Structures
1.
Amino acid sequence: MKPKFDTKFWAHRLNSVKAKIQDEEFWVPIMRDLETASRDVQFRKEFVKANNFDVFQEHSTVQEIFSYVEKSVMGELRMIGQFNKGLKKELFEKTRVNVKLSKMVIPSITTLWLFTTDTFTMNYKALLNEHVIEYILSWLNPLYVNEAFLQEKDRLFGGCLSILWNSICSDSDMKYPIRKHMAPHIETVKCMSEDFSFDQRILALTCILLLTDHERKSDLTTTSADINILIKALHETVESKGGDVVISNATYKLSELLIIFVNISENDTTKDILIDLHIVDSLLHLLPITSLDRDQRIQTLQLLHKLSFKIKTRSGLTDFTKRALDDFLITTNDFEIVELCKRVIFELDQKKRLKESVNTPLEDKYRKPKHVLISYNWGSQPLALKLKSCLKGSGIPTWMDVENMGADTLASMAEAVENAFCVLVCVSEKYKESSACRSEAEYSYNLHKDTVPIMMEKAYSPTGWLGILCGTKKYYQWFNETTIATSTPALVNYLLAHPHAHRSLKEESVEEPALEAKSCSVTSATPKQLSTTDSKEIFMNKLTQHSLGKLKDKFGTFDIDMLKYLQEMERRSPDFLWTTLETQYGMHFQEIIQFCVLLKQSNFD
């Protein structure tokens, strides 16, 4: 017998299985041996080190085995119980299927599960190709329908769900290929979350929340007793200063609880449930516990950051959370922990920031240099850099976080949003699920910035908070060379004609006088020059004619470009303009209406 860690020997054995896939007596013992060997972590390390993931790739040994199991076992399992062929024959078939499941499916599922438990595996895309994922999900329903007679149902269900869960937790990108195949099986997983052991219910619940879209998962947690159990477990952990806690005869570490909460809190409905169950209080008491390690503190803050989008709407909870975080910040100098604390505080401070923005004189806002801000997720960075290059080549001042970042990254981002005349939101599934991207996009929205969706992912339709933010706005496609070439002229012309951009373009032209789309070969006309003092005089006379003469003193210092800016603000951000006129300029209801009507009727070109 070859040495246990001889990976070449194992690779040869596994590859030989494909040639004899019809011969169960040949390959079943090999898979059993692999299952036994894989229980040794050192074997798995050697196997990964030798880069033998080819046995998991498309048309691989594992895929061939799963395909054979689908034809020879699962098809038969789907038929059992559908036809009344007599109790004796039905029991015979069930016994035979149980034997096949035990011989063929369990070793393969267990081996995959063991490999996904390792942080050193890393290459989950090789370990779980889309065909293997599809098989695992498609087996859930026939297994569930016939679970009453399955002898090893816990190993079957637990193995399938654990493979999905481990893969998602270790490589967040895995959620996207798995999600594509999840929709037809959501009801099965939901039923499993109600009928099985606590461990499997939590796995099923978490998979549902991670792998379904916003609309489908919004109603899945509102009656879940398991979330209450998890919250109680977290409270117990706080009381024991970060110790382990026992739930349904299983021991959970604090880090395991936090991982579950971080994942299920991606759902906005779940956020509300968690806050109602006082999770914030527990998290704030966790942070200063000295026995917590660095990873546990980071997980706690990541969870607080996800919850902060809901916390900020809760009266009283915002100030309580900020005070606790301020106290904690004094005790640490860890850069990542400090940054996460600042992100939470930034989100909770948005009301204050918005109030300061409203109170800034309109003239000061106009005189500040303006730019286009590109808001993106790192998964879309190559496309976002292409977008930046196209805009700068057309003379459009552009801000992106790959440059112009100060020592305080959060303050730099906030200032960049505040000084943007337009925010390009690079829409993708990863963007929607990033807390940092959500913070940036919502801050732009709350400041009434002109937000333009740039589609970075083919056939993706934003839902949830991102769907609300994008609304019915015009989308620009930007996910391949063809769509970039098509969208660039329209996008560049839109930004060049943007009334808020005119002063910025004039300032930029000192260094870059040519306003042609250099890097994308798109020719665009320069914006019109806005200068006729007659238009300003006519507008001021209109104010007098409509009993608004007292406003001439307030707006007399505005030049024609600033009046054009006001007119465009009335069109794009009427709520913001109304608030500004009411709070800063002391205008009453009828005066604001009359003023806005005059703005609409005026021609400043």
2.
Amino acid sequence: MSSISDHNPIHAMKVPIIDLSHLSRQDFYEKSLVIKEIHEACQNSGVFHVINHGIPKSVIDEALEVNQKFFDLPGIMKEEILELGSRDPFSPVKLARFQHSALGSDLLQRDVLRLQAYPFEDFVDLWPKHPADYREKMGRYTAEIKKLAIQVFVAIMESLNLDATYLKENFEKGMQLVATNSYPSKSISDIKIGTPPHTDFGIITILVQTAPGLQVMDSLDGTWKDAPKLEGSLQVFVGDLLQVLSNGMYKSVMHQVIVPSTNKTRMSIASFHSFEFDERVEPAKKLVDEEGVKSMGSSTDYNMLVPIIDLSLLQKDHQTRSLVINQIRESCRTAGIFAVINHGIPETIAEEALTVNKNFFNLPLKIKEEFFSPDMYKPVKYGTNQGGAHGILWEYLKLYSHPFEKLVDLWPKSPPDYREIMGNCTMEMRKLSIQICGAMMESLDLEATYLKAEIEKGVQMVAINSYSPISGSNMKIIGASQHSDFSVITLLLQSSLGLQVMDKNDKKWKSVPVIKGALLVLVGDLWEVLSNGEYKAVLHRAIRTSGNETRLSIASFQSLEMDEILEPAMKLVNEDHPEQYRGCCLRDYLKHRASGESKPFVETVKIINSATIQ
């Protein structure tokens, strides 16, 4: 039989990161997205990080610090708790040193202080008296964790398509057991530091850890993988009782702790949440039918739940950045579109850009017609699309915007602040595009700087579209017809609903909502070529819906220079993945557009070979 050391993981577990701040907002879509993310995390991995969870960092730090001080106390000051715990396995306070038999001849050691924490008033007088502020600081921490656990439980119920109040009262009255684990800094002879493989018997567990050591069993390949510590986050684990309640839809996660020999003690605080001690848990009736588990159904009428990625996390530690890069990878592969928040562009710049373009389109037609041209290469171009009896379907203004200094004098002079406001907007969008391209390169296992110089020198074209209101009950008319963008990536800002994308899974058109403060990132044709088909350009369109509101969108298309040939990255071409696309450039695309050819341009550069046919 192999020893525990033989089971050290090679890779880090790609643990989902869920931003809980969206649960408290009024936006139905944002909440629906978080609920969907929780569903997928519980179903696929059984563990997820939560950020923006509302618990102050100081409360968490103080709890870890005061527990470290407790374990550092002389033994005589801890004997009272040791004695109490040794006599009664159900003791509300128990201190013990565990040495577990693991695989083979290995032993795993840890020191544990277990506390019943709810109701707080019933148990606090039994908690350690030393350090002097132990009860105060741990009381504050456990109360905050209890509130968070209730919030997460409600969201998990919704993720199962159960009512938000389902068993909420039972959970609120339920047990909270807190286990503080101290893993000594060094192993002694054949004793390793850690906890053997196990699942948690409870609904959920919320964990904070000070250092690496936690490992999770990957349900896909059965291997142990590191579950990295993410600064500022807490980890949520699916427990055995949630597996029962969900009728097996969510599986409790197998995990262990193997602490590498270091000069620093590892601390963790695990808060286990269940129902009351004698309350039986059964599968929710709504999740049981003659065939077993019912299907989940849709959590939103929009249906296109676009991933939301917090770009500020790219600036955190290496492990956190890696998790975000993986989010980008999965978003590009599965959807071809994602939203970015905390992207660094002030909201005022986006709002001013929308307003100044609205003012431009409200100008007399005579002023706007100055920019009318059939020339596709014109650096500033105004136009309209007609809809027969419906009149003008939409107006557009296209601006080449890089290098800004050479082009700005060609832009509209009216409104008077147009050039200044749109200059600020386009430069910020260009900077952000370059940053996102670097992260997307990393998501393909390329260097972040791959093609960076070429992209920085490349063409930036900005298209502003104005869709006027139309009359009619619930009327929908196609605005911009279905297409993909010939760009590396496209950044999109929209004022209201209208964008639809083709869902790659069921090939249906689905609306993309407006997410306050976010920008949308769309994978373009050039990225499909660069990635050798690993990422596909997203097919999308715009619709006009009856209403009183004019819809505006600002799209920034980032490409290479006009005649710069882009080919698949050689690192992504091999015997198993032969080259799928021939090289192409922006001028090729513009010629294709001018020809009136209906076939999508990216289809014209695909290479047909035996691997493609298979």
3.
Amino acid sequence: MIRLLIADDEPVIADGLYDEFIELGDPELDVIRVYSGKEAVRCLEKTKFDIVISDIRMPGVDGLELARLIHNDWPECKIIFLTGYRDFEYAYEAIQQGAVNYVLKTEGYDKVVEAVRLAIAGIEAKRQDMQIVTQAKKQLKTMSSILRRNFLIHLLGGAKYELPALEDEFVQLEMNMRAHDDCLLFMARVDTLPYGLSYLDQNQYYYSIEHIAEQYLSPRLHLLPSEDSHGNMLWVAQPRHDYEGEASEEKAAVFLKGTLESIQRACRESLNTTVSFVMLTFRIRWNQLPEGYNQLRYLMDFRIGSGIEMLLTDESVPASEIAKTAVPAKYFPFGKHMSLESLLEKGERDSFMKEMDDIASQLHPDASILDPIVQEIFFSVSTLLFSHMNRWNLLPRLSLQTGYYRLFRVDEFSTFAEAWTFVKQLAGHIIDVQDIERNKRASDTVSFVCQYIQDHIEDELTLVKLSERVHFNPAYLSRLFKQETGSTLTDYIQEKKIARAKQLLENTDINVHEIGEMLGYGYGSNFARTFKKLTGMSPKEHRESFNKY
């Protein structure tokens, strides 16, 4: 969407240019005209314009002053100056202001249209400028550390990749990791920090701990660090190539465990803080990260003793206890809740149902609803749905027939399959209601705009002014209107103006030029030219043909 503002104190020129651009029929060009520099300033204070056509000499705020204001507030805006004066000094100053062109009024509309097309081409070229892409890539490199950390959280959330695709992700993120090899997983929690630290100072401690770990472990291990929402620091580790070999899995685990003790000591001595570590002594596959993460959480919370620094491994706790923690993670891994919540918010029915089916596929369909693991999964999703319904006030819109009251009544179901079918059906009802509400809001907005146009058909109507009435971004309103009606706003306004013009021509004796002015077409032949283009006859011919009958 390109927004064009025309400012000229001679109405015949402002109206003529306005009609010239409207007749181009470009749905991506929104045009507004004003008749003074002050009006132009008011428009620019409310809305961003891409191109401004301005007369240089206007009373009050002239073109040059307007240009200074534009360059201060909207530096990317292109300016085209118009003048009837062959004044080199004025023209030179205009060019110095950064105008993309300088057109004499005597050169005609075609020259102005050409200048606007050049300006649009420049805007589009800048959008596609490879320098911007290159700069973005450089910035992406500086963000690579953040992206790698987020990617690990993504994997912990249960994201599934085929090995070649995972390897591609590692390459793109410049990660020294191998998708085809297993990895070690360990976690840290800061036990003590000085009281009253600022947010920045707290993060400095975490960064320092991470840096210490990197210094001690990087000679033998590649590390991928991150952190979870519980304040735990996480690492995935793989042996370096030169450290691989016979019994390398055992060697890597022994090296990691022994070095974590050194890291703890370094943190005590250099940071005056204690850090607890937990780790798995066996390597796991990348698609097992959610289960491994859950085991580490269990180890971290298991704690032996209180208020003291610890270093625990999976060998420190009975295998039967550790095994229990893998069950809920397998079915409802870290991050799955957020994924379901996001899909529900966006109304992505198919993706939501696929996620639900993935969870259900891990359980036997005849599993008892009384099983604690089954209940945990059921209540997790039930809470998500109920919270969503409350947040969007959907309960009054959901019929009791949907049975939403059963969300916390496990006694109403005999098997997991029965309960899960109910939850999926309810989620479907929720998405249906959301779709209806969204479509109604869209329909109501477009209906309001159509009625406003009908009620103000004799006013100047533009996309910007209409978007202000509904408090929408102009580009968004344009797309919404086209989606709902199949017509562009510009075409719709013209259609309604011409329909009103026909009524006036058929039922009154008002002069053709006056009708044009009443409907916002301004002076001269602008109205007649537009009317003939859209109806095939001039306003006079239409009146005469109607009067014959």
4.
Amino acid sequence: MTSIRHLCPSLEIKAQKELNEVPSRVSSDIQALRDWLKKQPHLKSVNPSNQWLIGFLRGNKFSLERSKGKLEMYYTLRTVLPEIYQNRDPFDSKIQDILQMGHYLPLKITETDDACRVCVARFNDTATKHHILDVIKVCFMINEIMLLEDDNYTIAGINTLVDLEGAGINLFIQWTPAIAKKVLTSVEKAYPLRLKGCHILRTPPGFETAYSIVKSFLSEKFKQRFFVYTKMNESVYNAFSRKVLPQEYGGENATSIQELIDHWKAKVESYREWFLLEDEQRSDETSRLGEPKTSSSLFGVEGSFRKLEVDIIYYYLYFLNSQIEIRIKMPQMEIRPLLPILKEKARKEINEEPDRIVPDISAIREWLEKQPHLKSVNPSDQWIVSFLRGNKYSLERTKSKLDMYYTLRTLLPEIFCNRNPFDPIVQGILKLGIFLPLTTLEREDSRRVTLNRLNAVESSNNRLIDVFKVVFMIIEILILEDDKFVIAGEDLVVDLDGVGIRTFSQFTPTVAKQTAAISEKALPVRLKSSHLLHTSTAFESVYSMFRMLISEKWKKRFNVYSRNLEAMYDVIPRTILPKEYGGMCGTIEELTDYWKIKVESYSEWFFREEMVRSDEALRPAQAKTTSDLFGVEGSFRKLDVD
């Protein structure tokens, strides 16, 4: 493979053992990423080197899908975070000044040929001469050089020593929740960084305040790699070999801090042409297939953090004066702002009153805290407000659906457990593109159209119950992300072309009742219409059974077509449909790729949610069982056979 450095023998072995690198597959893996990039209309300016791409592959253990996810996030952040990723000329006077201060210094030598790279981050009070984001910008510039040049960094990983000696209030005041979230999203979700450890040294009074903000945005895996020391001690030297540390840190390396500063200043300057060329390599959000990404959609509303930012200053000063322990509670109110047209629809159709949202969310939280069987449940504000909206702000109906949702997560493990997006079964279903919410709307307040291609199930070996698992995974993402889906509702298109006995025979009364209960009684889904396409004779039996299990309100929203789709176009315009359905907006393949990456990006969320469910042993009333909710399965056996 051209343009890729050869590895030393020990690093080559480590890459194969720890990162799943197969030398004979490197070329085809890189080509697969290039082919994928070419299909992304919003990434048409992106044409990275082979060395850059293999850095992402190694940082993601050669998972093509995770590599795509991080590449997509990296180039997206280059657009939505210009304060970090643009104007990166090394000879800019501000950047020159920051380089001369030596805030971020990767050390030159490693303990062994295949050891991780040690970096020293020196965030003393001189870091406040410039805005913290300018300092972070330079740190990221150096990281990108390492990604291009340093095989120890990309394969063995990075072990960072963060020195806070002399850091004070001026530094911590700048480290707001909004900035922390942006920086940590870049580190964890955009860069192919193999963080082996982050050791924070010589922490000053009040450090815990800023540290609690950092930890709130980290995954559990990253949290376990952070260590805090008040001073240099033997524990530090257990993590870092004295052989590689400079003498200023009690090490034996003859290279001084000043020599490291001079080295990295010259190195960054030598990359001037690369940084200038890279300035235009970023996502074009106007060409994205789905909704354009913005700083608000990725990081929430910065205004929701303002009170906490004031509190940080107040509590820090209070701490310095009184020397008592403080704890800061993160704000609970983290909800996306609505477009004006959606805000009006929410007011008219679902009784949303902006000044009631906070007390209504608080009321739901207080109710949850009083439910002993829901002690593991602590949903986000966005999740709660979606349930409120889906129930037109009826607190009682919202409580009922939340209780049912977390109960079904216990009683229906075949649907709600083992939801790892990278599980081979889930991957296979995602690649088929069976359930695809369309990414385009007719208007800003239109309903979200979802396409359920059950015909893709017939030709596969997947169980229908596993398909429903993936469908509900995508619906949960919509509940978290899509205000149009939650407020305006859903128009469901079900394609039954070619669906026969293999699929219909799996849609037993038991499965039908379970999925109907999830859709109608557990999730806050506002189904406005359902359009069944390409129906067959065999379909009628299954459809009549399903209608017995849904409410009259839902029955009225089902529309059946045989082959003539013109009537459907009166409800769902061609302009938003994919070409395969007579539409004018993209293809099924593009939608499949989009939703596969989207579901994979939620792997941490699904992992955390695995244990969030009801504990029926602690329910105050009688414990719920599948028999209570769905009847005795034996009573369905004759109908199953029929």
